[in-house]
């Protein structure tokens, strides 16, 4: 089983099902031109008008309509919409489903220029981090804090902080990817002295792992899922800050990073694609033994605790440490966000917030309703390692998800879990999820998509030895500097 990793930036994580190829330069250019026209044709949204929650009438959303644009989610979103309409009689939620992401972006851009975009738009349909597009969307923060039902204790606020750019939260996070933002590294205990290197550490970064790997000189590789792309993205703050227009790729620090990272990348590693083997396959002892001989570390997410969170002491990879950048920040990928168009009225803005809260926080007793549970699992699934920023959802849904999942695994000697294991695994996973969600976080996508595409393309060439490290650094410096200058 494989999938595009969370750390493969931009639309690369969706390739293979979004009607575009990895190097869709022409499509990207067309999209940028549309955004420029869009920026020129739209008026400044009423951002300075103070937001006020609708008065508590019998139902403030009576006779209101909210349009929602999504990709590949309509069936489940419609289920929530129908229940929301039953709770708020007289309201209407219209779900627009798109089957091709490029045609969706084109249509939404045209409707925005015409002054009639969808009210709520799935974040992967609009590059709202692009400064030319950002003016067309509304900051969620004033809406959240004006909501009389909003309570910070109900949410993992670090997720919102990580996604706030220039003081604005343009993409409300419905789920975030645990395989990046809530991941850990395990140390290979079969390598003499390696575990002792991590004694007393609270977190670990890519640069820490590279430096320790080089000192041990074992001939082993970093991790099954490690490559140059991951190393650069996890340290991108050292070289690029799009908000302050700082670009510093063409220097020895960057050249050394990508050179050392490639040396620690397994030769069989395909660039930008996770060989999704983060959990232990208990029935494959040979694979486990191979990992202990080839890799110094193993990266995993808290969603894997049902498989090896409470193993007995003979476990080969031990001592989980939260994985951060050099600033001690967890790297978070918002798997699904929703942007709010600037044409929405205050009542529609409040209705959108009400709908997202309904989407994320299950009502009391909802988990006893199989239909409700199936829908809520959309944003709390094991297979995609996603979690919700809503605390209530984590507390309620995680145990149900694990009861469903763990029954599919067989426990063998050598990789057995202590005792019954499953209740402890659930408790451990929820505890680590809470701990990680309260740590400082950084959005891995803080630059616009076309900037991330350039990073991907150039590092792809370096990975396969088509250009040197010096050429990669020089090319990144020139191309991204030029893009920022052109954007003005």
Summarize this structure briefly.
By secondary structure, the chain is of the alpha/beta class. It is built from 18 helices and 13 strands.
Topology:
Blueprint: H1 25-41, E1 65-71, H2 74-87, E2 92-98, H3 101-113, E3 120-122, H4 131-134, H5 140-146, H6 157-162, E4 172-177, H7 178-181, E5 183-188, E6 204-205, H8 206-216, H9 228-234, E7 240-241, E8 246-247, H10 252-263, H11 285-294, E9 297-301, H12 305-308, E10 317-324, E11 330-340, H13 346-360, H14 370-376, E12 386-387, H15 391-406, H16 422-437, E13 441-443, H17 449-463, H18 469-487
Parallel strand pairs: 1-2, 1-3, 6-10, 11-13
Antiparallel strand pairs: 3-11, 4-11, 4-12, 5-9, 5-10, 7-8
Helix pairs in contact: 1-3, 9-10, 10-18, 15-16, 17-18
Describe the structure.
The protein has 488 residues and is an alpha/beta fold. The protein has a domain at 48-173 and 337-360: D-Maltodextrin-Binding Protein, domain 2, CATH 3.40.190.10. 40% of the residues lie in helices and 13% in strands. The chain is built from 18 helices and 13 strands. The protein has helices at residues 25-41, 74-87, 101-113, 131-134, 140-146, 157-162, 178-181, 206-216, 228-234, 252-263, 285-294, 305-308, 346-360, 370-376, 391-406, 422-437, 449-463, 469-487, and strands at 65-71, 92-98, 120-122, 172-177, 183-188, 204-205, 240-241, 246-247, 297-301, 317-324, 330-340, 386-387, 441-443. The strands form three sheets. Strands 1, 2, 3, 4, 11, 12 and 13 form a seven-stranded mixed sheet that branches. It has a four-stranded mixed sheet with strand order 6-10-5-9. Strand 1, helix 2 and strand 2 form a beta-alpha-beta unit. Helix 10 crosses helix 18, helix 15 (391-406) packs antiparallel against helix 16 and helix 17 (449-463) runs antiparallel to helix 18 (469-487). The relative contact order is 0.17. Residues 1-46, 276-283, 306-314, 380-384 and 402-421 have low confidence and may be disordered.
């Amino acid at each position: 089983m494989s999938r595009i990793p969370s750390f493969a930036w931009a639309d690369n994580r969706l390739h293979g099902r979004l009607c575009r190829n990895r190097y869709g330069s022409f499509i990207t250019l067309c999209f940028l031109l549309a955004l420029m026209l869009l920026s020129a044709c739209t008026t400044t949204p009423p951002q300075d008008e103070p937001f006020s929650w609708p008065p508590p009438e019998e139902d403030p959303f009576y006779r209101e309509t909210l349009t929602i644009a999504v990709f590949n989610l309509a069936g489940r979103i419609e289920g929530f919409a129908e229940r929301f309409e039953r709770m708020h009689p007289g309201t209407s939620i219209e779900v627009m489903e798109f089957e091709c992401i490029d045609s969706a972006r084109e249509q939404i851009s045209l409707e925005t220029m015409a002054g009639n975009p969808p009210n709520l738009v799935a974040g992967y349909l609009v590059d709202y981090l692009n400064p030319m597009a950002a003016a067309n969307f509304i900051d969620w923060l004033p809406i959240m804090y004006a909501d009389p039902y909003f309570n910070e204790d109900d949410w993992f606020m670090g997720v919102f902080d990580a996604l706030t750019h220039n003081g604005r939260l343009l993409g409300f996070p419905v789920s975030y990817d645990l395989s990046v933002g809530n991941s850990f590294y395990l140390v290979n205990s079969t390598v003499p002295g390696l575990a002792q290197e991590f004694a007393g550490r609270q977190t670990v970064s890519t640069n820490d792992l590279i430096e320790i790997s080089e000192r041990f000189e074992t001939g082993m590789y970093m991790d099954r899922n490690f490559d140059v792309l991951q190393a650069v993205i996890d340290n991108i703050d050292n070289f690029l800050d799009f908000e302050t227009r700082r670009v510093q790729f063409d220097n020895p620090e960057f050249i050394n990073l990508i050179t050392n990272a490639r040396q620690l990348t397994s030769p069989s590693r395909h660039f930008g694609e996770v060989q999704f083997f983060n959990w232990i396959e208990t029935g494959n002892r040979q694979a486990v033994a191979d990992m202990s001989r080839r890799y110094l570390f193993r990266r995993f997410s808290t969603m894997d605790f049902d498989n090896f969170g409470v193993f007995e002491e003979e476990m080969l990879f031990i001592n989980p440490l939260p994985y951060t950048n050099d600033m001690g920040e967890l790297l978070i990928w918002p798997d699904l966000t929703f942007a709010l168009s600037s044409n929405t009225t205050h009542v529609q803005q409040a209705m959108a917030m009400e709908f997202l809260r309904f989407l994320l926080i299950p009502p009391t007793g909802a988990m006893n309703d199989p239909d409700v549970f199936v829908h809520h699992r959309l944003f709390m699934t094991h297979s995609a390692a996603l979690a919700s920023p809503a605390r209530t959802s984590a507390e309620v849904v995680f145990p149900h998800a694990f009861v469903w999942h763990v029954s599919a695994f067989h426990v063998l000697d050598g990789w057995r879990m202590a005792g019954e294991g499953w209740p402890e695994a659930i408790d451990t996973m929820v505890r680590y999820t809470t701990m990680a969600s309260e740590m400082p976080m950084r959005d891995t996508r803080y630059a616009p998509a076309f900037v991330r595409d350039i990073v991907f393309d150039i590092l792809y060439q370096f990975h396969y030895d088509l250009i040197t490290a010096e050429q990669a650094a020089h090319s990144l410096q020139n191309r991204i500097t030029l893009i920022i200058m052109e954007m003005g």
